[in-house]
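Consider a concrete sample entry:
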Amino acid sequence: MLCKALRPLMLGALLASSVVHADVVPLDRVVAIVDNDVVMQSQLDQRLREVRATIQKRGAPLPPEHVLTQQVLERLIIENIQLQIGDRSGIRITDEELNQAMGTIAQRNNMSLDQFRAALAHDGLSYDDAREQVRREMVISRVRQRRVAERTQVSEQEVQNFLASDMGKIQLSEEYRLANILIPVPDGASPETVQAAGRQATELYQQLKQGADFGQLAVSRSAGDNALEGGEIGWRKAAQLPSPFDSMVGSLAVGDVTEPVRTPGGYIILKLEEKRGGSKMLRDEVHVRHILLKPSEIRSDEETQRLAEKLYERIQAGESFSELAKKYSEDPGSKLNGGDLNWVDPESLVPEFREVMNNAPQGQVTKPFRSPFGWHVLEVLGRRATDSSDKFREQQAAQTLRARKYDEELQAWLRQIRDEAYVEIKQ
C-alpha cells in the first residue's frame, strides 16, 4: 500500500524532472583531447579571465579575442602534456608543500594568507583555483628539472671561453648600486644660471660630507625622475655609466659620494650604495654530503619518501652514511664518493636544499626533505669563508651558459612533446 501511495508522487517527480532537463544548458564541454586527458571549456574560460586581468593590469591593449583564445588553449595543451608526464613519473605535490608554497607567495607580496585570499577575491579569482594552478606549476617545474635541466651540461672549456670573451667580461664585471642627485641646468642657460646651479650642487656636496642623509636631500632637492625614491637608480656596471662616472665609480668605497660633475643636463652627485662582484670576494662555503632518491615510473613519491625515512633511521642506528649513499643514492655526481658534494657555494643550490643545509647543525644528519630533484638526506661536514673570486666567476659563467642552454633545450623539448602527443581540438 505504501508503494501504491508513493507511485503517483514518484511519477510526478519524474515528469517534473523531465521538464527541467529539457531546459538544461550544458555548463561545460571538452575543447581539446590531449593524449589520455582533456581540456575543458571551464578551464579555458578561467585561464582567459586570469590572462585578461594580467594584461589589463599592465595597461596593455588586449589582442583580438580569437587570437587570445588560441594562445591560451595552446598553453593549456602544453601544460596538460607535462602534467601527464608528471603523473606517469610519480611526481606528487603534498598538501604540506602546497601550503608552504602559497604562504611563500603571500609573503613575497607582503601579505598574510588571509590578505592574499582577499586580494585574489578582489581580482575576481578563486583561492582554490589559484592553489590548483600553483600545484600544476610545481609539478611542471619538477618535470622540467627531471627531463630538461639534468641533461643541460656545460663543459669547463665552454666556461673558460666565456670568461675570456668580451661578452663574458662585461656580464661578470663588478656591479654598483647607485643613487644620484641632479641639479638641473636648462639648455642655453646663461653663465649666471650655470654658476648658481654649481654653487647649489657644491652646497649639497658639503652637507653630504658633513653627514646629511643622501636620500632625504634627493627627495627635497634633486630634479631627477628618481628623486622620490631617494635618488636610487639601481645596479649598474661601469660600462653602462656615462663619462666620467664610468672611470670614477671604481675608486669609490661603499657610502662615498662624488664631487658635483657638470653634465649636459646639469650637475650630478653620485653615491655608491653597494657593490658586488669584482676581483676579491669572500664567500661562505659548506662541505656537505647527501643521499638523493628520485621518484620514478616504478616508485611513487610516497614510496620514495618512505625509503628516505628508512635510510635516515638506519644512519641514526649507526650504519655508514657513505656506504648507504654508494648503494642507494641516485645522484651520479656524488654517489661514488659516498654522497660527498665537497665544498659548495650555498647560492649555487636550489632553495629547498640550501635552506635545510644552512639550518643543519654540523655533524648532524637531517631528516628527509623534498627538493625539485627528489628526496634528500644530508649531513654538513664543515663550514668556511674563503676568497672564491675566481671560482665564483666560473660559477657565474657556468650558470649563465646553463641558463642559455636550458632555455634552448626547454623550447626544443616542448616542441618535441607537443609533436608527439595526440591532440584533437574540438570546435
